[in-house]
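Dear colleagues,

As part of the handover before I leave the project, I'm documenting each prediction I ran so the next person doesn't have to rerun anything. This entry is a single chain, and its sequence is reproduced below.
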Amino acid sequence: MKVAMIGTGYVGLVTGTCFADLGHDVVCVDKDAGKVERLKKGEIPIFEPGLEDMVERNVEAGRLTFTTSYAEAVPGRDAVFIAVGTPTKETDGSADLSAVYAVARELARHMTGYTVVVDKSTVPVGTGDEVQAIIAKENPAVKFDVASNPEFLREGSAIDDFMQPDRIVIGVDAERPRAVMQALYRPLTMHEVPTIYTSRATAELTKYAANAFLATKVTFINEIADICERVGADVQDVSRGIGLDSRIGPKFLQAGAGFGGSCFPKDTLALTETARKIGRPTQIVEAVMAANTERKRRMAEKIIAACGGNLKGKTLAVLGVTFKPNTDDMRDAPSLDIIPLLQKAGAHIRAYDPEGMEEARKYLTGLDWTKDAYSTMPDADALLILTEWNEFRVLDLDRIKSLLKAPLVIDLRNVYAPVEMAAAGFTYHSVGRGVISPGA
């Protein structure tokens, strides 16, 4: 089938490339001419494992192209996906849909023949109705339908999430767009991937509900971790103990520094604003948001306390600044709150991240960025782990101890085993597992 993907951000580029890999003819559109030229040269603007090779393979096969031109990309397409950003409005916290609506107006000028317009962007309930109204007003003669097909891609494993999804959710209000969407996803659904066909409004809400629930799980286990530290329990064992219950499940029960990224903070806020507007406030989700904001401040306080309550003149070695491993995404990363609080308390920061340093420089100032993990450590007063990159799991503990001024490790991602760290001679602070001292 012939597909156009409007937007080459994280969702658009991954989704368009994966559709091409399934055998469809895909053209990706972006208004940023420089970005399009880089994509044509094989330069990928985001870090996502496996994406660069997949883009190259499908470009060479002629199934994937890039352009800035709607006139070139849209006419004659079976489906056109809207995959542009829906950032949070600073004024009221709702989703900014201006880019989505601008795309709808542009599509109306170039659509020929019957087309299914698919909202892939995360949008509030009712957005599909507005997109339909815009296109119909701009071009009353065009034949089209609007569908909702929310994405459930996790950064760092997005290709697997597309190719081997837990489920596919498709919101349509007529049979004709359903048939088009069935044909698009047939290479996946023929392998019995669970597929939900529902109304547009239901599909739109499903995405927000999913992210809000996952954010709730993260916040819940973080609060349990705080209790564990006070009573001498182990949050990882608690997580396993409750996660083995099939009604709960083990995922998103890893205690840490709080959630971040492009989805959870933005989508939980947008959901609460939608709920307020219709007179049905989401008290649980609002509490989750408040607790997550507070979490980051408390993690900074935890670090300061572990360093003796005073950071003036001290150097801290920081490993990891992205909101999660296997991505260069800095959006709402806990480090963006924690590091400035440490700097304000007087600390000098040396930091390293395998993929995120270039992006982090846009948001964090006054740091020394190093070439590798060990370069952060010479004469540092403590080592902090803020992101659980795999390479941080296999560091040479003897080498770390020889480099640090004091054998103090503060691990906000529970990368290491407390017994192992004590045996290696470290004072080791983690999350929800207490403090371990050498020889303990």
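The chain has a mean pLDDT of 96. The chain has two domains: 2-198, 199-440.

All the best with the project,
I.
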